[in-house]
Design a protein that fits this description.
The protein is α+β, with helices and mostly antiparallel strands. Helices cover 22% and strands 29% of the residues. It has helices at 11-29, 120-134, 162-167, and strands at 3-4, 41-49, 52-58, 63-68, 82-87, 90-99, 103-111, 137-138, 144-145. The strands form 2 sheets. Strands 1-2-3-4-7-6-5 form a 7-stranded mixed beta sheet, with helices on both faces. Strands 8-9 form a two-stranded antiparallel sheet. The chain is globular.
């Protein structure tokens, strides 16, 4: 089984994640009936978040959204317990996992087993779609809309639209979340 080592933020930590699950695949999973030989271990779209690195890990036996702390830490919450993480799209319930080499990580299962995926590209497509959905703001109707950049009104733009100025926005832009 090969693995894909990502060139992305979190470099060494994400490389460690891929390497560890590739090893688990070779030593413990390869001969099990849930192992999909069309897939390889791959880290998709990991991005820095307050709690660590968020992305999708594809393996031949699962596809999970993973939240990996920036540094190895022990699980202080029992393995298998549910924890809630607030993402751009809202609150999501993750499961606590732990590995001797990686330490604690939280995961949200997208697929397990992965036997329905006939190609690695199909699994990558699912990973990208899931990340896009998790990292997209919901609109008032509850459907996802891409996050819009915030543009503040300059002095020159004041007279263009009084309502936009009073809200501090250019017409058509979404308000910034300043609750932090």
């Amino acid at each position: 089984m090969s693995s894909v080592v990502p060139e992305q933020p979190g470099g060494e930590r994400i490389h460690q994640l891929v390497k560890r699950f590739a090893h688990i695949g070779e030593t413990a999973m390869r001969d099990l009936p849930i192992y999909n030989h069309a897939l390889q271990v791959d880290a998709i779209g990991f991005k820095p978040m307050a709690a660590g690195w968020l992305g999708v890990l594809i393996t031949p036996w699962f596809i999970n959204v993973m939240l990996l702390p920036k540094q190895k830490q022990e699980a202080t919450i029992p393995l298998g317990e549910k924890v809630t993480h607030k993402l751009i799209s809202g609150e999501h319930e993750f499961t606590v996992g732990e590995d001797d080499e990686l330490g604690r990580y939280d995961f949200l299962t997208l697929a397990s087993p992965t036997l329905k995926y006939k190609s690695h590209q199909a699994a990558r497509d699912v990973a990208h779609k899931a990340l896009a959905k998790l990292l997209t703001l919901p609109d008032e109707a509850g459907t996802a809309v891409p996050e819009q950049p915030v543009h503040f009104v300059t002095a020159e733009q004041k007279g263009k639209e009084r309502r936009a100025f009073l809200r501090g926005l250019i017409p058509g832009e979404r308000p910034a979340d300043i609750s932090d």
